[in-house]
Q: What sequence folds into this?
């Protein structure tokens, strides 16, 4: 069975809409209400749900609480998400201290670096040698990694993570990485984001009769 | 005249392709070569160019050096891009030290914070009171800002930046901001990036017969 990333992202939007319905007093919901709230067709809702084994009752609709529980389970929101990080430089250290992750139930449990000067197993988030990444990931059963190493070290770091069993990587190194089939890599390219913004601002100033649209 | 963000992003891809053509010895280029290199139609290339007042010669094509110069000028790559930052916490401080920006000709010239304990005008990148943002931006003619403040302070910070004359903002606060017509806001939502990745990994583990596609 082949699905696409968007169907998974829609599950999280259904979940958020369900919380809103619950807040205003709903207990049960039909797929067309949910479809309207998220801006898709009700056929799409049913298709997305059936893909992940969620079944409703054509007459009675879905029980909201049970549906939220099921979606949170599928999306992994029911448990604390343990994440490891490679590269304890400026950006990596900032991410370790980044409070907004905790609100979403995400916790960076360990960081790894090749620089012995950065190692400190006694910190709340220990900084360990990169060689220990594989055994740590295996013993702690972590599935998600963040790469904050310099671009020349990024591919090697990803390879180490994949070998350890990491299935999802958020990559901050400004380089396109070769991944394996069982590991999804999402790139956050801060330079490109900022560069594109500069392009927009500059281009608009050079052509002041041009107005920007999103599509 | 209305244009879209993609046309500006294509200009940067044309520029990168032109550097490659130059490297392999080209001096002149026709729009269909450039179109092939970037994966668009030659009509699209000519349309994008005419939007920004770039004209070629139907017989002789475009002079590569002159075209690169013109594109860099439109995109603002010919000059150092001065950027200000609001919120000198962990993430803000990491961005100030982030080396990859410099490679792209981007320099954070000052940071602003409401916390007096963080103020230090003598640092290489001075940290100044937020109240000084407006006068700094006006006297240094900066157009780009980065927001790294907590989400509750983000809208106020954006309002201050807009009033100061900032036209483009990279926003790291996990909140949707209301902007003005003359200011583009790009959001980098690290929680959402990581959360989506966790969703993918979890959903795929819950439905192991599901395979992920990009579209």
A:
């Amino acid at each position: 069975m082949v699905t696409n990333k968007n169907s998974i992202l829609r599950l999280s939007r259904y979940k958020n809409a369900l919380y809103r319905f619950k807040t205003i007093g709903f207990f049960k919901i039909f797929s067309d209400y949910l479809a309207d709230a998220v801006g898709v067709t009700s056929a799409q809702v049913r298709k997305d749900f059936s893909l992940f084994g969620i079944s409703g009752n054509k007459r009675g609709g879905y029980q909201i609480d049970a549906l939220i529980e099921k979606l949170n389970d599928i999306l992994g929101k029911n448990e604390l998400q343990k994440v490891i990080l490679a590269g304890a430089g400026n950006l990596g250290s900032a991410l370790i201290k980044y409070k907004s992750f905790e609100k979403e139930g995400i916790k960076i449990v360990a960081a790894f670096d090749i620089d012995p000067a950065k190692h400190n197993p006694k910190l709340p988030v220990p900084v360990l040698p990169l060689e220990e990444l594989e055994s740590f990931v295996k013993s702690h059963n972590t599935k998600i990694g963040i790469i904050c190493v310099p671009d020349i070290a990024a591919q090697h770091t990803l390879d180490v993570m994949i070998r350890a069993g990491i299935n999802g990587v958020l990559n901050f190194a400004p380089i396109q990485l070769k991944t394996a089939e069982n590991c999804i890599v999402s790139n956050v390219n801060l330079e490109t984001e900022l560069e594109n913004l500069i392009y927009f601002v500059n281009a608009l100033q050079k052509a002041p009769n041009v107005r920007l649209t999103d599509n």
Remarks:
- The first strand of chain A starts at residue 2 and ends at 4.
- Chain A has a mean pLDDT of 89.
- Chain A touches chain B through 67 residues (CB under 8 Å).
